[in-house]
Write a structure and sequence with these properties.
Helices cover 33% and strands 11% of the residues. By secondary structure, it is of the alpha/beta class. It holds the Pfam family Branch.
Length: 359
């Protein structure tokens, strides 16, 4: 009479233990948890961001440097595969060598070696670990922006690129397009009345309010996790790679409100790409009219695999590919492109002077 319940409980306990032991082998390994941001990393970043967003941080050009510069921000977790191509890009025109700065954030766990010479030497900033589907890529980008803001008040545009990005034009063309060509931005309503003068600088960042996966991305942390700071109606997505004005770069490093939400871990990894959500949402809420709503980095999303765009291989590299990648409906041309496999370096270098840097 008393033995049956006892035996039943014992059998249930043994079954649960067996399931606990065999479960991982039957179901496969659990997906890795998103890489969290440690309190020490957050504290370090906050100190840097406060200095960069302070009213007394460098914000005006000195009398010794009146021409604005482009800050090129390289975000990488592997060696800089295309460093020789970028080196040629930066050194192509002597008169433009003082019109840019380079900053590199390299994931310290990947053991990326800093070049001993060239434009990348001494340009690696203090870095932290990064990972996909986590807010660490936002932190790394904000770290780059803050460092560049503090480093040189002449930094006026901030171009974020990766180790898989390549230039599609010469530095002279890029500089002229951003600072001197009033009709480069085909969507600028002021271009028709510019009379040959660039009236204002706008940030080139993709901001999309419509996407099949928008709701899934918004709820990747939980249905109500983003409220009240980010209502679904104001949630935006877009390319991770942008060219921001100094005004918008300072807005990014100054933000604390939205960061509290976007730093939360995701529970749906296949729909959570914080670096594609945070910047478009923040700047759309902050200053939508000051943004072009499109990017200057060309990406081919045909044949997407696990959230990665098409990767170009050496047989695909040709003058015709470069010309096709430049074509844009929003600007006179795309300025950069991705994603290229590392072994594309040789064929790209072979057409660098005659095609890529010939504007």
């Amino acid at each position: 009479m008393y033995r049956s319940p006892y035996i039943l409980s014992l059998a249930l306990l043994l079954s649960l233990s067996l399931l606990f032991f065999l479960g991982p082998r039957l179901l496969g390994p659990a997906p890795p948890l998103p890489l969290p941001i440690s309190p020490s990393d957050e504290s370090d970043d906050l100190s840097l961001l406060r200095r960069a967003s302070s009213p007394i941080s460098p914000s005006r050009l000195s009398s010794a440097s009146r021409r604005p510069k482009i800050a090129f921000l390289f975000l990488t977790n592997t060696p800089l595969h295309f460093a020789p191509l970028w080196q040629r890009f930066f050194s192509g025109s002597p008169r433009h060598r003082r019109l840019f700065n380079v900053y590199v954030h390299a994931d310290p766990s990947s053991n990326v070696s800093a070049p001993a010479d060239g434009v990348f030497a001494g340009r690696f900033i203090a870095a932290k670990r990064t990972a996909r589907a986590s807010p660490t890529l936002i932190s790394a980008t904000r770290r780059l922006l803050a460092t560049a803001i503090l480093d040189d008040p002449a930094n006026t545009y901030f171009a974020l690129v990766s180790q898989y990005c390549v230039p599609l034009h010469s530095l002279a063309y890029v500089y002229r397009s951003l600072f001197e060509a009033p009709r480069f931005d085909l969507t600028d309503p002021d271009a028709s009345s510019s009379h040959g003068v660039l009236l204002r600088f706008r940030s080139y960042i993709e901001i999309l309010s419509r996407s099949k996966s928008l709701w899934k991305r918004y709820t990747s942390r939980g249905r109500y996790a983003m409220l009240p700071e980010v209502p679904f109606e104001q949630f935006r997505v877009g390319s991770q790679f942008f060219v921001l004005t100094r005004r918008h770069a300072r807005a990014v490093v100054r933000d604390r409100k939205l960061w509290k939400k976007f730093r939360l871990p995701c529970y749906q990894e296949n729909s959570c790409y914080p670096e594609e959500h945070y910047f478009p949402t923040l700047l759309s809420m902050e200053d939508p009219g000051g943004c072009t709503h499109y990017t200057l980095t060309r990406v081919n999303w045909t044949g997407t695999v696990n959230g990665h765009p098409h990767t170009y291989r050496p047989p695909e590299v040709s003058p015709d590919l470069i010309h096709r990648l430049r074509s844009s409906n929003y600007s006179e041309s795309y300025l950069f492109a991705r994603k290229f496999s590392p072994d594309c370096l040789e064929p790209l270098m072979s057409i660098a002077d005659k095609v890529i840097f010939r504007d």
